[in-house]
Structure formats: structure tokens, C-alpha cells
Write a structure and sequence with these properties.
homodimer, about 325 residues, alpha/beta, Rossmann fold, 7-stranded parallel β-sheet, 9 strands, about 10% strand, globular
Chain lengths: ~325, ~325
């Protein structure tokens, strides 16, 4: 199916796109993602069609600060999973250059090792410009990549800001990527480790201070999980994933193995059901926020009301808080 | 007025808090900010009371990547403005350690130079945990700090993510902080420079490569502004603001001067009115998003509906998109 050659109307037909996606068609995926990013009604229609077909992939979050080497690590992890015959999708939400809008460039630079592999699908999200917010767009894109039949979907985030925290909560297994450089901050990060990490990759483990950092992390895990007899104890794995080359690389197989072990744990303990319920609740909240805004904005549009309100506020006759109350009284039956 | 000694009811009284705030009372500010961060109705009442008294401060955004030295630069800029007798407030929105929730620590570490100065008020925002979103909480906090009678409010952001972009748009004058290290990225950042920078501080200008970077930035400005005969041409100012000490420091007076020059330009050209209108529009959008969510969630709460919906989705009987449509039909008169 050559979507590029199709008339635009057909290419934007949610049913046709859903069919293409479920067959793994990459151009259908690109088109679908654009619809969702634009916040269009057709995107919502498409998501409804896809929903019965998703929810079976492993969704893996990889989170860490800029410069921690997440992308390199993911590159290597993809290689391991591919060698096991698994299909892998990646959604990179990394606004490291916030003003570049440079997500497209990112795709090529960061993951070029796998660019010729039909079993790998990679998509970067811009850090801005989504009507319904980055988090909603991202959860939809994860679903789209699931629908393509990928066994794993890896979501890369910086973990900074509410949007990204929302995104992390979509993952079933969360890999926290740390580096020895952050030594003193571990104290401060304990809460985060406790809250989100299912496994910890101490990347750049060939740097000075790695041993101390490793011991400190292990102590954190011992105190926070083992002593509390948690059902799942996060492993701390030293890794070296410097570049795209496969020499000078360490710990990757262990990370891939630990990811699969955590997934097995989730399934055997039936914890996966709780996690799926939380994910649905999360999606519900994000879709909800998005659609409410669209609906009410549509109600206001064209009435010239907004401009009147702004003028009234600027002239000191009212304030944004009172205006919003008035608008809500008009539109909401609550 | 000793708010700590007051009975809680009185301390949370919006009218009493507003009165205290307008007198510059710091404890009233702390209490007010908590109300706003909690997304409480009293916070909204307070904001309504404050609104007629705000809008006269200069609001300065300082934006740059983590590690660019924003905080040090701000520290020095505060010193210059203080020596001119101006009162300065700072709102730091910098989720550099996303998992620390460590904003409180940040206040002390970063700005301790000014901690004894009654003419400086500093507040860090946590990067998460706001019901109505970080951007709404931050715009409210900026208004609160304006209401305290500060001549300038400096808002420090990383500029990554939609929330922070929203926050940047609250500022009248935006200082973009770059460093020579990012040399190759300048190409990618051009769009951002064009979009937001009213002046550029090339910080760490004593590092290798600073000269080349400076020339490249100046060329960007020449091409993007001068040749297009823009009414305002951003200055590129090399700065050194390594630590909290005042020796080995460069370019700070120039930055402070350029900020004031831009403010004069805004006022003389009457561009300030457009900027104030955009800010009000921005606030309206943020308050709106927040209040709509609260109203509809309140409508759903206690009905047990949410749990039923989640179960229906998990059992494949519906999907989040259809559920949201159903809920909206119930609650919206549109």
C-alpha cells in the first residue's frame, strides 16, 4: 500500500490508516502520528479503532538526565532485543535542545545504527506545540507503535517536568539511568529512585567514582526495598554504552535481561493488571483534559468573547479568575 | 503581623493574606503561594483580590540549559539591581533534579548571597505535583511576588517542555543564557533565539571557543534582526559569572543595563501593551484549563463512575476516547 501516492482524503481515512498500522506499515504510522499530534478529530477516531488491538506490548521507560547516555544505552539494548527476534519501537521525548524543534534531526543522529532495520521503528517527539499537551500526544504515539505489532516499546524521557512524569507512568518497567558524576545528588534522588525505578543502570561506569556511586546506590536499594521486603528489588547494573560501537560496551545484556525479568515478574505476580489499570486511568485523565479544552474553546470561538474578556482584564474591570468562572457557568452542567 | 501565631482560619483568609502581601509581608507570601500551589479555591479568591494591584513590575525571564550558569548570573544581576535600590523577586523553575522535589534546598544553595536582604524575595517551584500544572502555579506565583511590591520579578527556567515555554511567555524581557560549549548547536537554536531572546548572555565567556561562539551568535542576530530591520535588536553580551563571588566576574552591569534598555523600549514603543495582552491571554488559558478540570472532576467524584469506566476499558468494552466523549456530553453545554 503506497500511502504517499494515495489521494489525501484516503490517506487520512482513520479506517484505512488503522488497517495499514495493524500490518506494520511505516507510512501509515507516520500519518497516524501526525493526526494525533495535530489533535485532530480523525486522530481520535483512529485511536478508537486501534484500542482493541493494543495493550500486549512491553512498555519500557528509560529515564535519566541529559548527558547520562540514555540514547546510546537504548541503541545497544535494541541490538540485544533484535538479536532475540523481537520487534522494537522507540518514542524519544527528550527536549534537550528545547528551541531547536529538532526532534527530526534527533531520529537520525541518535538511532542511525538501526535505520535500515525493518524491525525497529523510532519516533522523536518535539518538546512543544501539542494542542492537548505532550503527555497526551506521547501516550497516543505509544499506542500507535504498539498497534504496529512491536513486542517492546521503549519510551525515552528526561523525567523533568510534569509532562514527562506523566509519560513515565505509562511505562510498565522503568529503567533509571544515572552516572557517577551525580555522586552527591544521590541523597536527593532517593525519593525518585524509590518511586519509579524498576532497575537502575549506572551508565559511564568506567568513570572515576563509579565504584563509590555503585555502592551508594546499592545501599539505597537495600534500605528502600530489601529491608522492607518489597516484592520486586531493583537491580543496579553498571553499564558502559559510550557510542554506537559495540566494543567498549558493558552491562547491556544484563539490562535487557533485567527488563525481561521484571516483565515476567509483573505477569506472574499479576501486578501487570494493576499497572494496566493505572495506565488506563492516566490515559483517561490526559484525553479528558485535552478534549474538554477543545470542546470549550470551540464553544467560545468566533463569538469574539475572548478578545472582549482580555480587554476587560487589561482595563481592570475584571480578572482572569472571574472570567473563567463566568465561562464555566456558561458551558458546564456541574 | 505574625501570621505563624495566627489561628489557621485567619491565616488562610484571602483578604488578610492579600493585605499582608500588599505590605510586602514574607510570611503572607509563603502562605499565599502554598494556597495557590494546592490549587485551592481560597487561592483563586486571593488571586482575584491581588489582580487589581499587579501588572506594574518588570518581569524578566532568564532561560538556558542546565549547567549554563543561570543561577550565578541571576545572583549577580540581583546585586546590580539592589545597588540601584530596586526590590527584586525571583521565581526559579528549574527541575534539574527532577526526582528530588528538592526545590526548597535550591533556594538556600543557589541564592544564599541574598538571604539576609529584605529587598530580595526568592521562591523555587517544585517541578511537579501541581493540580493545575506547573505553568499556572508559576504565573500565579509571579503575580503574588509582583503584589509584594517588587520592581523586578526574575523567572528562571530551563526552557524545556511545554510548561516552561508557557512560563517564558509570561516574561516581558527574555534573557537567553548560552555557553561556548554548545557551539555546534547554535544552528539548531537559531529558531529559539529568533523567537524568544530579547538579549543573549554568552556565559562562561572565559572558556575556549567563546570568541567563535560570540561571532556566530552576532551573525545570527545580524541576519535575523538587523537585516530585517527589527525594532529591537537583541544584544549579545559575553559574561563570566562563575560563582557567588564578585571578583572574576564580567558583563553583569551590561546585562542589567540591557534589561532596563529593553524595558524602556517596550514602554516607549508602547509594545508593552501587546505584551501585557498576550500575558493576560496566556493566564486566561492556564486558569481555564485548570478550572475546567477541577469542575468536571468534581462532577465525577463520588459517583464511582471512574472505576467503572476503567474496568470497562480494561475488559475491552470501550476505550478512553469514547468514555471521554460520553462524559463530555454529560457535563458540557456545547
Amino acid at each position: 500500500m503506497n500511502l504517499l501516492a494515495m489521494p489525501r482524503k484516503l490517506a487520512d481515512n482513520p479506517k484505512a490508516l488503522a488497517d495499514g498500522l495493524l500490518l506494520g506499515d511505516r507510512r501509515a504510522a507516520a500519518r497516524a502520528i501526525t493526526l494525533v499530534e495535530d489533535g485532530s478529530q480523525k486522530g481520535t477516531e483512529l485511536m478508537k479503532l486501534l484500542y482493541p488491538h493494543v495493550g500486549r506490548s512491553m512498555v519500557i521507560g528509560v529515564t535519566g538526565a541529559g548527558g547520562s547516555g540514555k540514547s546510546s544505552l537504548i541503541n545497544h539494548i535494541i541490538r540485544v532485543f533484535r538479536s532475540q527476534g523481537r520487534r522494537v519501537g522507540v518514542v524519544a521525548v527528550d527536549p534537550t535542545s528545547p528551541f531547536s524543534g529538532g526532534a527530526l534531526l534527533g531520529d537520525r543522529l541518535r538511532f542511525q545504527t538501526h535505520s535500515m532495520d525493518e524491525g525497529v521503528y523510532i519516533r522523536s517527539m518535539a518538546s512543544r506545540g501539542y494542542l492537548g499537551g505532550l503527555a497526551r500526544a506521547t501516550t497516543d504515539v505509544v499506542r500507535i507503535i504498539e498497534a504496529m505489532g512491536n513486542d517492546l516499546v521503549i519510551v525515552e524521557t528526561l523525567g523533568a517536568g510534569q509532562d514527562e512524569i506523566d509519560i513515565i507512568h505509562v511505562a510498565q518497567t522503568c529503567v533509571l539511568v544515572l552516572t557517577p558524576g551525580m555522586g552527591d545528588d544521590i541523597q536527593a534522588m532517593k525519593a525518585g529512585i524509590m518511586e519509579i525505578a524498576d532497575l537502575i543502570a549506572l551508565n559511564k561506569a568506567d568513570l572515576d567514582g563509579a565504584e563509590t556511586c555503585l555502592r551508594s546506590l546499592e545501599a539505597t536499594v537495600r534500605y528502600g526495598f530489601e529491608e522492607k521486603e518489597a516484592a520486586w528489588i531493583p537491580r543496579v547494573i553498571p553499564t558502559v554504552a559510550a557510542g554506537a560501537r559495540t566494543d567498549d560496551v558493558r552491562g547491556i545484556e544484563e539490562v535487557a535481561e533485567a527488563i525481561l525479568a521484571h516483565q515476567s515478574y509483573l505477569r506472574e505476580s499479576r501486578t501487570i493488571h494493576e499497572i494496566q489499570a493505572k495506565r488506563v486511568e492516566q490515559e483517561l485523565g490526559l484525553v479528558f483534559r485535552d478534549e474538554v479544552q477543545k470542546a470549550v474553546f470551540k464553544g467560545l470561538k468566533g463569538t469574539g468573547k475572548k478578545r472582549q474578556y482580555i480587554r476587560a482584564i487589561l482595563e481592570g474591570r475584571t480578572d482572569p479568575y472571574s472570567v473563567v468562572e463566568e465561562v464555566l457557568r456558561t458551558f458546564l452542567r456541574v
